[in-house]
Structures are given as C-alpha cells and as structure tokens.
C-alpha cells in the first residue's frame, strides 16, 4: 500500500466499512477477490449471485459497500484499506463507477490483478449516455439534486430481477456525482497488474466505444462482451456468464 502526502495533510475521515464475504472450503490459498459496486449499489449487489459462485470456484470473495456521501478519493481510500486488510494480495473488481474507483486504487495498492466490469472510467462520456436513456433521473444531478438510475439503464430485456433491484437502489448525491465527473486520469497501476475489461454492447450507460477505450487504456486487448445483457451484469438473468469468464481469465493469469 502506498501512502501519499495528501493522505497525511488531508486524511480521509474514518468510517465503519461494510464488507460482505463468501469463503471457499477448503481455502486453497488463492488470491481473494474484492468487489466494488458503482453508483446506487452496495455490497448486496454482489451477494445476490457472484460472491457465493466465486467461493464455489475456490476463490475467497469479498464485496465492499461505498461510504455515504463520499468522494472519489474517499472511495479509493476505502478500497485500498479493505484490500490491505485481506489475508493475501487481492484482485480488485470494480463495476460501473466502481471500476473508476478501482482504477484510482490501483495507483496505491499493488493488486494481483484487476477487472473493470461495465466500467464508467470517463464520467462525461457516461453522463451523455445516461441523459439519453434517463433524462428525468439524470438532469437533477447537474443542478444540485440526486442521481436516480432507471430499470431500463440497468437491465437487458431478458432480466427477471428488475423490480427487486430497483427498489434497493440508493439515490446518489450531486456532490458525489461531481467528484466522479471531475475525476482526473488514474495514475499508473502499482506493479503493472493484468487488467481485464468486460461489459455488454447493449449497455445503456457504458457504450461499446467506451468499453474499447477502457480496454485499450488498461489492458491493451479487446473487451470481453456479453450481448443482450444490461449494465448490471451481476444481477442479470445470465449473471453466471460474465463471472465465469472473469474467473477463467484469472485462472489463466495466475498460471503464467
């Protein structure tokens, strides 16, 4: 873990962090995965399907809920602290704006690997897509209100978990949105970990072009694509496809 001058002069206020977990039996010493959710979501979004499935495949799985009314710097700080507390060098997995948080945390924490799922890594680009898909929920965030996500932004046509998920979403304060929109470019990852980008070409928040840009910047290859799925990959009816692809990629990377 890297500590910077700003962390000493302007420390991030401490909070009690919610971290959910699912652990394999037996534990074979594989690196733990730390999942970081995006706007409106919490650790619960990964507990629904991904945490248990990852543990069944032999990897310790953890999910971190973002602090309330935080900033990008505070979120990245929480990810670094949570990862540093795990028993082994972690794999960071960020979804949506959680991928932006992970991209910044990688400049402070020497991750074993990283996965950016449906990554919102350029805020203004995502904002344009959100305005087109959900102007009523997005416009208030530009004028001091909250950001509200809509079901049509999150799910594909095949999804069956729409109502239950939307009921659990939390509106995002405007100050948090501004912090993410104004985010500087992430620094160079510590230790040059392998990075995978995955998403859907039918995502109504992250465009296919944005997925390609993220893959070019962070991994250098093409993103893994799951047509027909929406933004909330971990809550879709076909949730198993992206997480199995993620784990298959990770197993190969660990064998190098």
H/I helix tally: 12
Tell how many strands the DSSP assignment holds: 7
CATH class placement? Alpha Beta
Question: Going across the major beta sheet, what is the strand order?
Answer: 1-3-2-4-5-6-7
Roughly what percent helix? 25-40%
Hey, roughly how much beta strand do the residues contain? 5-15%
Structure characterization notes:
- This protein has 256 residues and is of the alpha/beta class.
- It has one domain (5-254): Alpha/Beta hydrolase fold, catalytic domain (Rossmann fold).
- The chain has helices spanning 5-9, 44-47, 50-56, 72-84, 97-105, 123-133, 135-142, 151-154, 162-166, 174-181, 208-218, 240-254, and strands at 19-22, 33-36, 61-64, 91-95, 113-117, 195-199, 224-225.
- It has a 7-stranded mixed β-sheet, with helices on both faces.
- Helix 5 links the parallel strand 4 (91-95) and strand 5.
- Helix 4 crosses helix 5 and helix 6 crosses helix 7 (135-142).
- The longest helix is centred in the last third of the chain and has 15 residues, at 240-254.
- The radius of gyration is 17 Å and the shape is globular.
TL;DR?
By secondary structure, the chain is an alpha/beta fold. Helix content is 39%, strand content 11%. It has a single domain, classed as Alpha/Beta hydrolase fold, catalytic domain (Rossmann fold), CATH 3.40.50.1820.
Characteristics:
7 strands; alpha/beta; single chain; globular; Rossmann fold; 7-stranded mixed β-sheet; 256 residues
